[in-house]
Amino acid sequence: MQAANWFIGLVVPEQAGWIAVAEGIPPGVRRFHPLDLHLTVAFLGACGPERAQAAWQALAQQRHPPIPAEASRWLALGNPRRPSAFGLGLGRGHRSTAALMAAWGSMALAAADRPAEQRVPLPHITLARPGGDAARAAMQHWIAAAPIPSNAVLLEQLALFTWAADRTERLFQVVAKRQLEAEV
C-alpha cells in the first residue's frame, strides 16, 4: 500500500456550499466531499507523521488575519494535456493566499525536510478528480460553461491533513486545526 500524503491547507467552510457547483459534473469524475475542500498551503507528500507534525509546528507562531475569498474561474490542474484535477481559481483573496502559500509553504517544507516548491503559487480549491480519459475529456468540456459560486467565503482555519482511513467517502482527514488570527 502507498504511504499517505500530508499537507497543510486553509479549510473551505462547508456552509459556503462551493461543492454544490459541481453537482452536474459528468459521470466518471469523483466530486470531493464538502469536508475535503481546502486550499493547499504546503504539500508535504509522503513525509510521514513526524515530519508533518514538524511542518505544522513550524507554523504555530505565524499569524495572518482570515482571508475573504471569491471564486473567479474553473481550472484544469496538472498536466495541460491530461489534467488530474479540476477546481476553482480565486479572484478576491488570490494575492493574500498566494503570499501566504509562498511564505508559510517555504517554512513548512523546510521544517519537514522536503524540497522547496519550484512552482509559482496558484491559489485554488480542488473540487473533482477524473477517473479516466473519457471522464477527463467530458469534464474539460463541462467546465467551459460550468457555474461559478457567487458567494464569498472566509478562509479562517489552517489545518494539517492526511489521507482518510477509508477513502471511499472522504479523501482526507484533519489531524490538527487552528484559527487564523491577526498579529497582536
Task: Describe the protein's architecture and organization.
- The chain is α+β, with helices and mostly antiparallel strands.
- Helices cover 21% and strands 33% of the residues.
- It has three helices and ten strands; from the N terminus they run E-E-E-H-E-E-E-H-E-H-E-E-E.
- Strands 3-1-9-10 form a four-stranded antiparallel β-sheet. A four-stranded antiparallel β-sheet has the order 2-7-6-5, covered by helices on one side. A two-stranded antiparallel sheet has the order 4-8.
- The longest helix has 18 residues, at 94-111.
- It is globular, with a radius of gyration of 16 Å.
- The relative contact order is 0.28.
Number of helices: 3
- Principal-axis shape equals globular
Look at the helices and sheets and give the structural class.
alpha+beta
Estimate the strand proportion: 25-35%
Helical percent range? 10-25%
Poorly predicted sequence stretches spanning 5 or more consecutive residues:
none
**First-to-last CA distance:** 45 Å
Strand order of the largest sheet: 3-1-9-10
Q: What's the rounded overall pLDDT mean?
A: 94
Number of strands: 10
Gyration radius from CA atoms, angstroms: 16 Å
